[in-house]
Design goal:
It comes from Streptomyces uncialis. The chain is of the alpha/beta class and about 260 residues long. Helices cover about 30% and strands about 20% of the residues. The model has no long low-confidence stretch (mean pLDDT about 95). The structure holds cytidine-5'-triphosphate and ligand LQXTBERG. Cytidine-5'-triphosphate (CTP) binds next to helix 3.
């Protein structure tokens, strides 16, 4: 068979958008969180590798702090990444949802499945990424990895911002067995996520994750098992844990 008569390869239809434009205020002073080192490598590079580790992911869009777009591009160019994957860098916005929207806007028409993954979750295993993609491909418009809770959760009447020491009255104790802590990557049919952003707006009216915006449109959202190592690096202790997990991986399997 000549080259010309070979069937065209299937279109590469899945992209990952990585919002990485946050400052990392809760982690403490320093460079933007995504650029801070984990095991000597920027946290963002770990997150990019985690997405590109899935053979289904053809494109990774990194949403960078606007002042660091060139630095992020240089980082991607100077670290070993799979050749089969394309990488774009776009400037982010003032909120996570705004940054996600800017990442969505950069997707080429061929993409029909989108993962949204926090740069702040650098250690998500590829099996979790693939489980999310598989569930979207199987027909779910929105898929979220999640874990049961270890702590009991109270709903409160939040204290006033100018009275940080005041006790907070408890309003309710939701049944823990019905609660889940959600992670990323969250996976979506592209049209579902774009519709949610168009409908709910860039501020998300308090939505703290993309799936929450999709829920507000009435589309179904389903959960698949998350992974303990997909935790979010938010506060300094999380970075200590991430360093320990990475050191264990490197000792066990040369990660
Ligand atoms: N304007 C923003 C805010 C957040 N994010 C990204 O959204 C993810 C989850 O946000 P979070 O962990 O809250 O990161 P930060 O906003 O950086 O943290 P903090 O709230 O402590 O400043 C991170 O990868 C972060 O870079 C973003 O792309 N654009
Ligand atoms: C999207 C998320 O990681 C799901 O748990 C989380 O809601 C992000 O919250 P953040 O305050 O922006 O870190």
């Amino acid at each position: 068979m000549s080259d010309d008569s070979r069937p065209a390869p299937p279109p590469a239809r899945t992209a990952a958008v990585i919002p990485a434009a946050g400052r990392g205020v809760r982690l403490g002073p320093g460079a933007p969180k995504a650029l801070r080192p984990l095991g000597g490598t920027p946290m963002l590079i770990h997150a990019v590798r985690a997405m590109a580790a899935s053979r289904a992911v053809a494109l990774v869009v990194v949403v960078a702090p606007p002042a660091e777009v060139a630095e992020v591009r240089a980082l991607l160019d100077s670290h070993a990444l799979p050749e089969r994957t394309e990488f774009l860098v776009v400037p982010g916005g003032g909120t996570r949802q705004e940054s996600v929207r800017l990442g969505l806007d950069a997707l080429p028409p061929r993409i029909d499945t989108v993962l949204v993954h926090d740069a702040a979750r650098p250690l998500v295993p590829v099996d979790t990424v693939d489980a999310v993609i598989d569930a979207v491909r199987a027909g779910a418009p929105a898929v979220v990895p999640a874990l049961p809770l270890a702590d009991t959760v109270k709903e409160v009447e939040p204290r006033a911002a100018d009275r940080p020491g005041d006790p907070e009255p408890v309003v309710a104790t939701p049944e823990r067995a019905r609660l889940r802590a959600v992670q990323t990557p969250q996976g979506f049919r592209r049209d579902t996520l774009v519709h949610a952003h168009d409908t709910v707006g860039v501020d998300g009216e308090g939505a703290t994750d993309c799936a929450g915006m999709v829920e507000r449109t009435g589309a179904p959202v389903v959960l698949v098992p998350g992974h303990e190592e997909a935790f979010k690096v938010t506060r300094p202790l999380d970075l200590v844990l991430a360093e320990a997990v990475l050191a264990r991986r490197r000792a066990n399997d040369g990660y």
